[in-house]
Design brief:
Four copies of one chain form a homotetramer.
Chain A (H helix, E strand, L loop, with lengths): L1 H16 L8 E7 L4 E4 L15 E4 L4 E3 L8 H10 L5 E5 L2 H9 L8 H4 L8 E2 L4 H19 L10 E4 L3 E6 L2 H24 L8 H11 L9
Parallel strand pairs in A: 6-7
Antiparallel strand pairs in A: 1-2, 1-5, 2-3, 3-4, 5-8, 7-8
Chain lengths: 227, 227, 227, 227
């Protein structure tokens, strides 16, 4: 667990590095599937005071197994996503500016170009608001369940992120670092999609064959990007 | 007073750190309620030359009690706010770019998401222009009175900031640091609200139950965010 | 002259510091009125290789008096402005992003708030394109004459800057440093004016009495801002 | 070749310096015309781990002549451009934010001002999408051939860059450094053109005589900008 705590700590510290967070508005977690435990940032602790020892270890029933701090207030959301998406190893939540602006606008991000298609296969979805009952009953848990429900008949590996309406983005990946990587990409494509719509209000998504080409040159059996 | 001067100095130095000011376009003050004295930045002094000793100590009648510099030209505005809002300990004024753009546009900032709801309960208001008579009689004092009048039947703790039309923002908090914190939040939500309206011109404020959830998970008796 | 060369060098180095220039797209000059000589940046020399010795000394007939480099290609524009505006001591030209965007759009910048009114009394003008004949005859000199002609019945001290259509801004001040200061302010108000129009497409300029208040609390006999 | 590898390495490292790339989303190459070999960045290698030795040497038949890494996935595009444009010595591809937004919007960048005219003579073109057949047959090679075809009756020296629809920009120059220089300029003019259209939706390109003046004072027999 010490290695995972170190890794999740480092991944958390990438959020201010990539300017994805203001103050404490973000959190990264990572899971050890064998042990059934995940590590997450403590709630409301400043990034410049954070240490690897501050990380909180949780089990998949939501019990704190180790740590002197309360876990992130979004822990229950992470937990539901881990339970439903067995192939992922890390999750990120931020209020990064451009992705959050799309979430506030209540719109998914159309795939306008190859930058998005390199990582996200199609439009990045925006899920609905929770109902008053869902909020009052168990806000953070139901946020996770809503995301899980949206993906129940979809490929969460090919679409490693989602926007929650009037709230902000969640991304995930094979580990905490890849989840942060996808959070950076999301912010960048959110910015370019908004500017692109301003430059051409009638813009259409990139042709499907171009999206396919870019997604599959980086992913799957026939990938040839990288080393 | 030396401790308060140090604190107000440090809080002032956060304004350039958070990129809320260009040149000398901002000021922070903090009050000692027991002594009835407040400390404020001197007028027009560069941030990179500022020292704790340069801070100016004022009483609540507007007399300079200590300090070799003239106080901020906005001192009379701070003074009226301190007199009317007994629960606050610090005030910030800046011309931060996004908040000032909303002020110039003469619009309050609708609460489009949880980022705003975490700190500001509802729409951040924009108060009217002063009349010609109010400007000529006592511009800075009347700016303070206008803000005070706006809040006379409202909760200034749940809405720790305001925009002054064609001018810029004021924020406050339990001390000078919290007032700066709220100034940073205001700038960030002002930015996201503008982008959000561009992404969806028909966007509506976040549902009230979502605003309630986020505001009250951070504030009040049932708060559970943080440590 | 060595002191003026040092000063103009330092003022030039503020342009990259304040992010007003990309590559070599800007220049600052300063004048010694007694000697009738002005100092200006050499043409096309990188800021990170610039030294005080590289500055070029010119007389008001356009002759190079000292210096191993060619002066800025915009030297003839500076010269005409110096001849016509006897109370100024420094001039700046940049392609700073927001001010240039307004220049390209062919619009003056309305005075939407106190930030602009603190430095520029009213709308910052955008002068017309030169004609084909004016360009071919003496492009840089005629750019200066066009600016001078615009201000012939106006107060160039109360309006220390101008936009040249499809080109970019010029600002001036009592010395090279104040000219740079005004270039920074211009960029900032250009940014906020554009954002402000996006937030409220029907926005109107700030009331005249508010502009007066802010301009005259910083300028003239009754100023009380600063020390 | 060691000198060229060093140069191409240094030119690649300018991409993060000028904030033109996120992660590994860009590549620079440079060619030795006498040897008929070009040097290019390896595919998917992080900029902060890159060394001059990592550069890949290719011949103009697309064979790797030297290097322990796979070359950039865009190598075939660079190759076609080198074969068709004999006067260039370096090529850059990025996903820089503003240029990519125009590419995604499917629009060329009109020449709204002298900043663009100083480097690009006229509107920076946006070429069409490849067909499904062209993508499936040889995506990267056909991207190069499409660019080459567009320029077959045009001056690729006077227009040292192009946007590929739904993808991003390519620029070139007499060597790798000039190609990067043009990539920076492209990003800057893409930003200003978008803002300029927002400030004035009816904006027209700069008058031809002004474009001519600026382009030819920096280029060709009668240039007088610089030293």
């Amino acid at each position: 667990m010490e290695e995972l705590k170190q890794q999740v700590y480092e991944a958390n510290m990438l959020l201010p590095k990539y300017k994805l967070v203001t103050f404490t508005w973000g959190n990264v977690s990572g899971i050890d599937r064998e042990k059934g435990l995940f590590v997450i940032k403590p709630s409301g602790v400043d990034y410049d005071k954070l240490t690897p020892e501050d990380m909180v270890v949780m089990d998949l029933e939501g019990n704190r197994v180790e740590g002197h701090y309360n876990p992130s207030s979004d822990t229950a959301t992470h937990l539901e996503i881990y339970k439903a998406f067995p192939k992922i190893g890390g999750i990120v939540h931020t209020h990064s500016s451009w992705a959050t602006s799309w979430a506030q606008a209540g719109r998914g991000i159309p795939c306008y170009g190859t930058t998005q298609a390199d990582y996200f296969y199609g439009e990045i979805p925006c899920v609905r608001n929770l109902t008053k009952e869902e909020i009052e009953e168990a806000y953070e848990k139901n946020t996770g369940l809503l995301i899980v429900d949206y993906f129940k008949d979809k490929d969460y590996i090919a679409m490693p992120g989602v926007l929650c309406k009037n709230h902000g983005p969640f991304t995930w990946g094979k580990d905490a670092f890849e989840a942060v990587h996808n959070a950076v990409v999301l912010e960048e494509v959110a910015k370019m999609a908004s500017r692109c719509e301003r430059i051409n209000p009638d813009v259409k998504p990139a042709p499907q064959e171009l999206q396919d080409k870019h997604y599959y040159r980086k992913h799957g059996a026939n990938a040839y990007y990288g080393q």
